[in-house]
Amino acid sequence: MRRLEGRTAIVTGGNRGIGRAIVERFAAEGADVMVVGRNEETVAATVSAVESVGCSGFGHLADVTSANDLRGIVAAATARWERIDVLVNNAGIGLETPFLEIAEEDWDRVVATNLRAPFLLSQLVAREMAKVGRGAIVHIASIDASGGDGPYASYNASKAALLGLNRTMALELGPLGIRVNCVSPGFTHTDMTEEAVSPALMDYLLHRFDRVPLRRLVRPDEIAAACAYLASDDASAVTGIDLTVDCGLTANWYILETLEGAN
Question: Of 152, 155, 229, 254, which residue is the catalytic one?
Answer without folding.
Answer: 155
